[in-house]
Amino acid sequence: MKNKNATGKRVLLFTSLTCLLLLAACSESIAQPSGGSHTIAVEVKTVQEVLQPGRAILLDAHIADGTNRVVEANDVQFEIWKKDADKHERVQASRWLENTYRTRTSFPQSGTYYVSAQVKSEGTEHVTPPKELVVQDILPAKN
């Protein structure tokens, strides 16, 4: 009888320890997010629909982290360049709304420009694909 009782206690002890280890492992993975593996989504938009040369233009970067909004980004910059130009300009954006960072810029002349947002947040860096912006005079030129 002693052998069956001792074997039953060992099985119960082994099962209990296994359950405790599994519970500890699950709670540890929930409490500690995997470092640097979260992704953020960034959408670049202009506030104005019509972009004119020499006029102020507001650029927004809307930032999201899955379904939760990223409240604080460490750094948000826009990289702006004219089509076929070697020179790229970097413009710092500042927090405007909870998930939106904004900067003000202007384009000196008509043409096609590109803008890309570069966002650093919570150990993650994200660079958007270039967005094409067409800047044009809407009034006919005077003769």
Can you walk me through this structure?
- The structure is a single chain.
- This protein has 143 residues and is α+β, with helices and mostly antiparallel strands.
- The chain folds into two domains: 1-32; 41-135, Immunoglobulin-like.
- It is 21% helix and 43% strand.
- It contains one helix and ten strands, in the order αββββββββββ.
- The chain starts with a helix and ends in an 8-residue tail after the last strand.
- Mean pLDDT is 77; it is low at 17-36.
Structural topology:
Elements: H1 2-31, E1 41-46, E2 56-65, E3 68-69, E4 75-82, E5 89-92, E6 94-97, E7 100-106, E8 111-121, E9 124-127, E10 131-135
Observed structural traits:
single chain, about 140 residues, alpha+beta, Immunoglobulin-like, 2 domains, 5-stranded antiparallel beta sheet, elongated
- Residue share in helix: 10-25%
- How does CATH name the architecture of the largest domain? Sandwich
Report the top-level CATH class of the largest domain.
Answer: Mainly Beta
Strand content is 35-45%
Radius of gyration: 27 Å
Largest sheet: 5 strands, antiparallel
Question: Can you summarize this structure?
Answer:
By secondary structure, the protein is of the alpha+beta class.
